[in-house]
Design goal:
This protein is of the alpha/beta class. It has 15 helices and 23 strands.
């Protein structure tokens, strides 16, 4: 599996009796990964920098507080991805690997696949798409784990989701980190390597599965944005029978995040709703359609419980309530932006109701969020905040939720390292802002004390 820089002629390959990944990282030349694909031989060449000690480049905590691996191209390397693949395969036997439409992301994905396959896992490559598509394909084919590699502006992001499409837990992350740092020789006999498979046409499969063709409507809707995710949403709505109106018309407009996981809604008056307000709108739609239980993320707004109660329904928070994961897997909202968009449009069309009318039926609530940069350990500060709030109802799942006299406060680690994301939720803007500012100051005080 290695070939020397000075002998890089076609067909001049050296196959050792075993594939030793730890030795590969110290090779002074090139590493060529070869595996069978489409009845032929496929090879990927990775340059190995002999002046870098991969073990020394691994940070103290590989995963961030959100369960993702982020870093620049000097940090997220093929060497690291091969080790990550080998270690991840120790926790999952069937892995789906996807990547965004980026040459470097594909190279990193191939490195991960090599490491995982050498550990004996059944690995399947999902062709270039977005995270929501790869996650859907993985859930549909009952994979244990989804790994998705994307180029996030100037850095790379590696996301891992379980069989429910949810971020992997802390226990699994610790097992992966422990395996990588064990410094054991990663050795696998070639006869034991399970050759990777691949899935093509994932976008087409996803679009066809999400679209609801039984809808025959002239209901017009516009889609904002020019990225891949926006184009996928346009295709799905067209397949569902909806007329795509020009942007900035007096009809509703929809926008999806680049990874396809979150939805933004613009009502008939031009007002945009995102995050918690979209959750509230979709919860109203979901329970109005007769559903009894809705699974939501741990830090979803507290107003959802009030909406559910008005319909005699129940909110299940992921990480807290039994059956929440299974419920999340089966529902057609909040799993991804596309399913949510189709469900919303179906409801608006069938019930002859507008988004503004739905919002008018919701309880009054406002969300105010701020990011606070802290010098100390984020997990410890979060724990101190929880311990300091005696007498108040609070729960810690993936985030800390505190119930106060005026409303709720959600506190979770930010995507930016060394920061907390704090959201105040109240009946009006004044209350929400006051709650948000109060806990921002408490976080800073605790940070100074430490």
């Amino acid at each position: 599996m290695f070939r020397d820089r000075n002998s890089m002629t076609e067909g001049n390959f050296y196959f050792p009796q075993s594939l030793c990944l730890s030795e590969a990282f110290s090779v002074n030349t090139y590493l060529t990964v070869i595996y069978r694909k489409d009845n032929g031989m496929r090879s990927d060449i990775f340059h190995v920098n002999p002046h870098i000690d991969p073990d020394g480049t691994i940070p103290s905590s590989l995963f961030d507080e959100n369960g993702e691996i982020c870093g620049s191209s000097s940090e997220i390397t093929p060497e690291l991805l091969m080790k990550l693949g080998f270690a991840t395969a120790k926790t999952a036997t069937r892995i789906a690997v996807g990547y965004s439409e980026c040459t470097l992301c594909k190279l990193l994905a191939n490195a991960f696949i090599t490491g995982a396959a050498s550990s004996g896992a059944q690995v399947t490559e999902v062709d270039a798409s977005i995270f929501a598509v790869a996650s859907y394909i993985a859930r549909s084919y009952l994979f244990n784990l989804t790994v998705f590699i994307e180029n996030d502006k100037s850095s790379f992001r590696i996301r891992m989701a379980d069989r429910f499409g949810l971020p992997i837990g802390k226990t699994t992350r610790r097992q992966i980190e422990g395996c990588i740092r064990s410094k054991k020789v990663f050795r696998a006999a070639l006869s034991d390597i399970v050759m990777p498979k691949n899935i093509t046409g994932s976008r087409e499969v996803f679009e066809s599965s999400v679209a609801k063709r039984e809808t025959d409507s002239t209901f017009p809707v516009s889609v904002s944005g020019k990225g891949i995710a926006s184009q996928i949403l346009r295709n799905i709505l067209t397949l569902s029978g909806y007329d795509l109106a020009p942007e900035h018309s007096e009809r509703i407009s929809l926008s999806v995040s680049d990874d396809g996981t979150s939805l933004r809604i613009c009502d008939e008056g031009g007002h945009w709703y995102d995050d918690g307000h979209v959750d509230a709108i979709l919860a109203f739609v979901f329970f109005s359609s007769g559903a009894r239980s809705l699974a939501v993320r741990a830090d979803a707004p507290g107003i959802l419980e009030q909406i559910a109660d008005s319909f005699g329904g129940k909110i299940l928070r992921i990480g807290r309530d039994s059956g929440a994961n299974e419920c999340f897997l089966s529902q057609n909202v909040l799993c991804d932006a596309f399913s949510s968009a189709v469900t919303l449009c179906n409801f608006l069309s069938e019930n002859d109701i507008s988004v503004r009318e739905i919002v008018g039926k919701l309880p009054d609530f406002t969300l105010i969020s701020k990011e606070v940069n802290l010098a100390g350990n984020i997990s410890r500060i979060l724990s101190k905040i929880a311990n300091a709030e005696d007498g108040l109802f609070k729960e810690s799942i993936a985030s800390l939720r505190v119930c106060t006299d005026g409303g709720w406060v959600n506190i979770r680690p930010s995507r930016m390292r060394g920061a907390l994301h704090i959201t105040g939720e109240g009946a009006n803007e004044e209350i929400a802002s006051e709650l948000c500012n109060l806990f921002v100051e408490r976080a800073r005080e605790l940070d100074n004390e430490s």
